[in-house]
Amino acid sequence: MNPSSTPEAGEGVRPYADRDDGIVQVSFTLPVRDSRAARITGLEIAGQMGLSRAEVVHSQPVTAGYTYLILYGSFDRRVDVDSIRRDDFDMDYMDHDEVDAFAASRIGRPVVVVGASTGSDTHSVGIDAMLNLKGYDGHHGLEAYEAFSVHNLGSQVPNAKVVADAIAVGADAIVVSQTVTQQDLHIHNLTELVEMVEAEGLRRRTVLVCGGPRISDELAKELGFDAGFSKGTLPNHLATFLVSSVAQRSATSSPA
Amino acid sequence: MEALADARRVVFVGLAKNTGKTVAVTTLIGELAGRGKSLGLTSIGRDGEEFDAIRPQIRKPPIFCPAGTLVATTQPLLSRSQVVHEILVDSDLWTPLGRVVIARLLRGGRCEIAGPSSSAELQVVTEEMLSRGVDCVIVDGSIDRRAASAPPIADAVVVATGAVLGPEVQDVVDATARAFGWATIARAEDPRTRALAMAAADRSLLVFAEDVIPLPSAFALTVETRDLLPLLGARAGIEPLFLIGGVLPESLLEALVPLGRRNHVRLVASDPTKVFVRSRTVDWYRRRGVEVQVLQRARLGAVTVNPLSPPSLRLDSRRLREAIGERLMHQVPVMDVLDPSYAGAGVPAAA
Asked: Is A134 an annotated catalytic residue?
C-alpha cells in the first residue's frame, strides 16, 4: 500500500469543473431522429448513469435517424483514491538510458522481444509506436535500445505464427497489440495466444504483454497476460516492465 | 453424474453468460456437502460480460459455501464477504482483484471467488487444497481458459450450456457441439502410436509405418500445404501419422485437407487443450480424411442445461437434454438441475 495519504484523498474525490462541483461531460449517439424525443432520451440515460442535474448542451443529426448528443451532469458521489491504490498501481518508469544500464548489469544480454499485431487486426500503429526505431511522440521504440533484440512481425499475424517465431528466436517476451476490435474478437484472440503459449509449455519463461486502446492492465491480467498497456503508454514504460520482469524471472529461476 | 463421483478436481465451464454455471456449481457443492464431503473452491478466467474491467468487484455472483470449505480467492473479496474464516496460506499469486489466499470458512456463507489467472497457478492452489485434506476441489472456470480443462489439471469437466445459445433446440445442440468438439476428440488406442508419442515427449514426429522422421520444432505452427507435398507425396498409399509435441493449430489441419482427400492422415496431440480448432470442427476435418486424436482425453463429466434465456425464451428442457445426449452418443449425463425431474448428481456418500 502507498502510505502517503492526503486529507483530500481520504474524503474522496469527484470530477472537478469548478469548486468541487462533480460536473462531467458525456457524449453519445442515439438511434433516434434528432428531435425532442432524442434529447429527453439522452437525459433519461444520463439519469440512469447516476448523473444529476443533467442537461443537453448540444445535439445534431449524424445521419438519417441518428442523433449525436453532448450532455453535462453532476456526479454527486466520491471515490476514495487511497482505497483503490495498490502495490503495483503506479510503476516508477526508467528512461531509455536507465533501462539499458539496468539490463546490462542485471541481465547481461539483450532481452529478445517478439511483437505483432495479431489476428485480423490490420493496424500496426500501436506495435510500431512501441517497437520501431522511430518510436512515438519523440520517444524511440525498443529497437533503439541496447537492452533489446526486437522482432516485429507486423500486422494480421496469426497466433500460431507468433508462437512459432517466439520459439525460433528464443523470445524472452511476446508483445501483442490489438487496435481495432469488434464483438470482443480481441478478447478471443488474446486468450488464444495465452492458451497456445501454455500449450507449448513456454508460459513460465515468457513475459506476455498486450496493448491497445481498449486494453487495461486489469483486463490483461484477467486474461492471463503479465501486463496490459493502454493509451498514454510510451516505449520506456513498456521497456521498464520488460527488463524488470525478465530480471526477476532470471533471478528466481537460477539456483541460489 | 456418476462420472463426478470419484473426481477430485472438477472444472465447470459455461459456454456463455446465463447458461446456469453458477447454479450448477452451487448445486454440486450442496450435494457433495450433503454427503459429508469436504470441499475446496476456486476459479480461473474471465466470464465474458460478467467481468467489468473498470469495476471488477461486480464480477461474479457470490457462491454459498458450507462451513469448513476451503476457498482460494483474493483477500479483499474474502474480507468483503464477511464470512468468518481463517487464512491458511498467503500465496504470492497476484490477480487484478488482489492477492490470492487460501482460507478455511469457519461458518457457512456467500463468498465471491476469484482465483489465479494462469493454469499453472491454478494447479498450485488446487494441489495445495487437496494436500490439506479436501475430498474435492471445484473450479469455477471460463470458456476462454480451457487450459484449465487439461487432463493434468482437471479430472472432470462440467459444461454449462443453454437456450441463450440459440432460438431452437437444434441451434443450442450445434453451438454446444461446436464449442466442445475438443472434449469429444478420440483417444489414440494403438500401442505403437502411444509408445512413439510418449518417447517423443514434446517433439513432433512424422511416421510412415516403420519410418520415423523427426520434424523441426514449431513445424506444426507454420507448415503450409506446399511444404507437406514433398514430405508426403513420395509415400502414396501409406497412411501418414503426425505426432505433435505442442500446439496443433487449425492451419495444419487446413494444410492437410487437400492431401487428406487422397490419403487418410492421422494426427495425435497430447491432450485436447493442445488442439486449436475454431473456424470448423474436428469432425469436419475427420470427414475430409484428416483425423485428430489425443493421447489423453479430457473427461467430460457432465453437461448441464439451462432451458431459459432471458428475457422470455424457454426451450423444452427434456428435448434439449435428449438432443445433446444424442449428439454426445449418450456417453455423458446431461441434466437440468432446476428441472423437477432432477434427482441429484449421483454422488455417493463419503466412506
From this structure: yes
Q: What single-letter amino acid sits at A193?
A: L
Q: How far, in Å, are A163, B183, B298 from residue B294 at the CA level? A: 21, 10, 9
Q: Tell me the pLDDT of chain B averaged across its residues.
A: 85
Contacts of the segment A35-39: beta carbons below 8 A, 24+ positions apart: A35/A67, A38/A67, A38/A69, A39/A69
DSSP secondary structure letter of residue B93: E
Q: Is B202 on the interface with A (CB under 8 A)?
A: yes
| Residue A89 pLDDT > 70 | no
Stretch B76-91: mean pLDDT = 89
Which residue do the cell numbers 480461473 mark?
B44
Dihedral, CA of residue B19, residue B21, residue B23 and residue B25, to nearest 10:
160
Question: Is the C-alpha dihedral spanning A177, A162, A155, A115 positive or negative?
Answer: positive
Kindly indicate whether the ipTM for this predicted assembly is greater than 0.90, answering yes or no.
Answer: no
* CA dihedral angle for residue B94, residue B97, residue B103, residue B104, rounded to 10 degrees: -150
Peptide bond into B311 cis (omega under 30): yes
Q: Search chain B and give the residue with CA nearest A89.
A: B96
> Is the full-model pTM beyond 0.90?
no
pLDDT digits (tens, 9 = 90+) for B227-240: 888 888 767 678 89
CB contact under 8 A, A198 and B147: yes
User: DSSP letter at B180?
Assistant: T
Question: How many angstroms away from the CA of B39 is the closest CA of chain A?
Answer: 25
Split at pLDDT 50, 70, 90, the class of B2 is low
Length of chain A as a residue count: 256
CA distances from B321 to A49, B177, B180, B318 (A): 40, 13, 16, 5
Contact at 8 Å (CB) between B141 and B149? Answer: yes
